[in-house]
Amino acid sequence: MAEPAAPIREEVIDLRAYLQVINKWRKVIIAGVLLTAFTAGIISFFILPPVYEAEVLLLAAQASEKQPVAARAGEGIEGVVELLTRIPVLTINTYLGQIKSEVLLRRVIEKLELDPLLYTPATLAGMIKASVQRNSNLIKLKVQNTDPKLAALIANTLSNEFIKLLSEKNQEQMARSVEFLAKQREMAEKELDKAVQGLREFQGQPRGVAVLEEEFKLKAADLAQYKARRDTVLIEIRQLEAGLARLEQELATTPPVIGVSQVDPATGQIVETEEPNPVYQNLAEKVADKKAILAEKQAELAAIEDFTAGLTGELDKLHAELTEKSAQQDKLQGEVTRLKETLNTLASKITETQIARSLDLGQTTIVVVSEASTPERPVKPKKKLNIAAAFILGLIIFTGLAFVLEHLDYTVKTPENVAEHLDLPVLGVIPLATARTSKASYGGG
Length: 445
Description:
Blueprint: H1 15-24, H2 26-47, E1 52-60, H3 76-85, H4 92-99, H5 102-112, H6 121-127, E2 128-132, E3 138-145, H7 148-203, H8 209-253, E4 257-263, E5 270-276, H9 278-357, H10 361-365, E6 366-370, H11 383-408, H12 415-421, H13 435-444
Antiparallel strand pairs: 1-3, 1-6, 2-3, 4-5
Helix pairs in contact: 2-11, 3-9, 5-6, 5-7, 7-9, 8-9
């Protein structure tokens, strides 16, 4: 038969037990908290050196939230040159990134002649805090140092050197841009001279574009005249053919001879004779003349057709040659025009870049709103805050330590411990024998 399962013991958290532990170890907790607060006070008042903070307020006059979109290369030579020679656009984050740059911090160290063993760019950067005030272009620059005068001096020197550095970097960039543009201009001038020489040589050929154009105009005019003459001859031929057909029709209906009645003087009788018909002869002469003229016109038309065909062929060849040479000349002329435009653009940009080079970018983009003054009170250490924090920290640590010690103590000291740990009833208690109780006991016996 299975044994009944042992009942599950429910442990109830008793707040009084915790209070008893705290009360039991109260001396340790109080001593530890006081020791911690006292140590923090000693360190804050006598060990930690006072730290002073100097503040400079800067205004970024031309700062923006985002970097603008760069010019696209597809905008032509002006867009490319503009991209290479533009003044850098600085954002707020760009300013903040440059304030702690190693180059700037080294300049400050050299300017103030600080000890390089004590002050390095890394240590100096740890003393500097730069932040941007919300929804503004104001940059707050803070410098902390144990020497109040040195803190103010570093803050002011840092802001001044930062402004100078912006101007110097702008001048360096513009100088490189001017040098680059000057080299490009020199190369463009050489290419332009070469292109102009090639254009002149092409135009100086025996059969240049101008000569071919003039020849084409003359032959085109001749062709137009011959075509007009051909049309006239065609009209004349049609007229001659029409007139010839009419004359031939009349000639066909006219008898070549006519009968003539004459009186014979010898016999006195009437004799019938035939004589050529003058009308017929006249018509025949006209027909012959018309045919002769028609033959001449037809011969003239044939000659005009042959000459027109030859002239048309010559014009076709001339047009093909003129088109090819015109294309070559346009290409050479276009190259010359392009190089001239490039030279003009480069010359204009060189002038603009030289002006930008002389611009004091630092003074125009950064304004010192408020210079740093020598601080009178230190910002560190915060003595009261340190002592309060040490007090709270000591209370937490030593309270926890009290519970740890109580948990590690397995000795039975009270009847309640016996009932709790051994689960047995207490039948009696042996009093603690001390020197006082023992003496009292012997005296009473």
